[in-house]
Amino acid sequence: MHIPDGFLDAKTWVTTGVLSAGTLAYALRRTRQTLQDRQVPAMGVMAAFIFAAQMVNFPIVGGTSGHLIGAVLAAVTLGPWSASIIMAVILILQSLLFQDGGLTALGANILNMGVIAVFAGYGVYRLLDRYRAFGLFAASWVSVMLAAGACAVELAVAGTIPLAVVLPAMLFWHAFIGVGEGLITAAVVEILSRSGVALSRDTVKA
Amino acid sequence: MDKKILAFLLVALAVAVVLSPFASSNPDGLERVAEDKGFLERGEGKEVITAPIPDYLLPGVENERLATAAAGFVGTLVTFGLMYGVGRLMAGSKAAPQRTDPSVR
Description:
The structure holds two protein chains of two kinds.
Chain A: H1 10-34, H2 40-54, E1 58-59, E2 65-66, H3 71-78, H4 80-98, H5 106-128, H6 133-157, H7 163-194, H8 200-203
Antiparallel strand pairs in A: 1-2
Helix pairs in contact in A: 1-4, 1-5, 2-4, 3-4, 3-5, 3-7, 4-5, 5-6, 6-7
Chain B: H1 3-19, H2 29-36, H3 64-92
């Protein structure tokens, strides 16, 4: 759900830009205090994996496709603050190098996929993590739905399309895409934990 | 570099190079809504910048699947490199007691 240039108006991209920049500045401060040199390669490789996985659109019903966002995957493995930075790095590169997501919409895209999806998904995960794979699935599904909902609100605020039209449509398609997000996230986290990669819950007593 | 990290990076590259050329070309959720609700054309020709590898197709590569694979390869490595660089800056910018080994050969 990378918003391209032209979908949002100036007030929307300035507002979302300020919100994203503020959150990222705080995330950088938080992460800088705790980040160890030895954790840096893990951040790099998680960013690389999510970038790659985002290229692989999977078909859903009705001639539509979706792809992993990866917000919950990053948050659960490396913590939500690091995850926000990882998502922002991916979204900036996608916009600048691949024309995927507009430069004017970068703030909105970071807000939706790098802030809202990360923290909402991580919150649900922390509530449900005793249910393991189901908790991850639910957290991932919620992260996609809330990011899609935020995207719809931004489009409505920008005057592009009324909320009553865009919100149900966005939530309908992303309810299916979120299932893909949930399955992929649960599977990848399972593989990672079996191969001995600690989850952030175990490493960071947050 | 840690073996697990290297293995995960190779998996990421494999996803980008092997799987992405076979990705669904159907519109994604937002594109679909934009199409159905008639605001897709608002984005047409509005790009603020011209990206070097538009639409994940490496310019100069004729075959579309190869162009996607090449774009995926480049993108995955650039993403790793940028995140690694930013991470090193963050980790290095605090006055933490760094382990300095005097017996560095």
